[in-house]
Design goal:
The complex is a heterodimer of chains A (223) and B (94). Chain A is α/β, with parallel strands linked by helices. Chain A has helices at residues 14-23, 66-76, 86-93, 150-158, 211-221; strands at 2-7, 27-32, 43-46, 81-84, 100-102, 110-118, 134-141, 145-147, 162-166, 178-182, 188-191. Chain A is built from 5 helices and 11 strands; from the N terminus they run E-H-E-E-H-E-H-E-E-E-E-H-E-E-E-H. In chain A, the strands form 2 sheets. In chain A, strands 2-1-3-4-11-10-9-6-7 form a 9-stranded mixed sheet, with helices on both faces. In chain A, strands 5-8 form a two-stranded antiparallel sheet. Chain A is globular and about 40 Å long. Chain B has 94 residues and is of the alpha+beta class. Chain B has a domain at 2-13 and 41-93: Mth169, Chain: A, CATH 3.30.1280. Helices cover 43% and strands 24% of the residues of chain B. A 3-stranded antiparallel sheet of chain B has the order 2-1-3, with helices on both faces. The chains are: A alpha/beta (223), B alpha+beta (94).
């Protein structure tokens, strides 16, 4: 499969994301924020970083980048889209996912190996994980507190749209320990931790993140 | 020329860590008696021509789509009248 990774001005983890896509068995395609062109990719990753310097709000300016018009249209038609960290923030600002991400409640940047439970393995990004899998994936953010009103949180939990939850303590003040969510349709996933940094034994905490990139083939083939 | 101001504030129920940090710093500087601080953003838009209802509607649309995130923030729009008066005074002097 061809998986596009968008680079915005200020993206940091686009190269790691492309590498992870390759290790997951796919062809990574570099996409540029200023192009109205998805180059025929089958899925899209919005990587982490500080696009547009986090000016205004994290992801607020990126949402209006030319490429996002195409990403939003493709996502609404069912294309798998994964937003990691800043990518998650962009997906919320784009209204592809509900809620928002605000500054960590303890006001410090957090960088740690984070335990997570995968609570929904029915998305194209998580199908490689056993139901309820507990994994360790690096988390690094300053504005990772997931917030939404109670009705939205109840709906996300009730419909199984919480994809991943923090274990062993809440690292950033996220409501109901939410680390990642998906949309109604299940094709768009936003995740605060960074699976693209947990794909090789040599670096990082292990390879628990690789499943996000190997899941894709099975998911798309089964469509 | 006219100036329209958009004030954006975190919704009351949304945690404001920046405001909390400021609140924590004030007593250390000897400013006592402040019980809460909320930090927001102020946008000053300088516009061509007169401020009509149509212009204000457009500013509200800007506030809803870009300047604020309605999920976590509220906004208020007001026209800064003294800015218009200052311009007029400036032109009067020339």
């Amino acid at each position: 499969m061809r998986v596009g990774v968008v680079t915005f001005p200020g993206s940091l983890d686009d190269v790691d994301a492309r590498r992870a896509v390759g290790l997951g068995g796919h062809e990574a395609v570099a996409l540029w924020h200023g192009d109205h062109d998805l180059q025929g990719v089958d899925a899209i990753v919005l990587p982490g970083g500080f696009s547009y310097g986090d000016y205004l709000r994290c992801g607020a300016i990126s949402r209006f980048a030319p490429v996002m018009t195409e990403v939003v249209a493709a996502a609404r038609k069912g294309m798998p889209v994964l937003g990691i960290c800043n990518g998650f923030q962009i997906l919320c600002e784009s209204h592809l996912l509900p809620g928002a991400l605000i500054r960590n409640d303890h006001r410090k940047f957090v960088c740690r190996d984070q335990r997570l439970r995968i609570e929904n393995n029915r998305t194209p990004w998580t199908s490689a994980y056993p139901d309820g899998a507990e994994v360790t994936i690096v988390l690094k953010n300053g504005e990772g507190g997931f917030v939404a009103d109670d009705a939205t949180l109840d709906r996300l939990e009730g419909e199984g749209q919480v994809v991943a939850r923090y274990l062993d303590g809440n690292p950033n003040g996220s409501m109901r320990d939410v680390a990642g969510i998906t949309n109604d349709r299940g094709n768009v996933v936003g995740l605060m931790p960074h699976p693209e940094h947990a794909v090789e034994e040599l670096t990082g905490s292990g390879t628990d993140g690789l499943g996000f990139f190997t899941s894709l083939a099975a998911a798309v083939l089964s469509r | 020329m006219a100036r329209v101001v958009v004030d954006v504030m975190p919704k009351p129920e949304i945690l404001d860590p920046q405001g909390k940090a400021v609140l924590g710093a004030l007593p250390r500087l000897g400013f006592d008696g402040v019980t809460d601080v909320r930090q927001g953003k102020r946008f000053e838009l300088t516009l061509d021509g007169e401020v009509s209802e149509q212009v204000l509607a457009e500013v509200r649309e800007m506030a809803e789509t870009l300047l604020s995130n309605p999920v976590i923030e509220d906004f208020e729009v007001h026209v800064e009248d003294h800015f218009v008066a200052e311009i007029a005074a400036e032109e009067g002097r020339q």
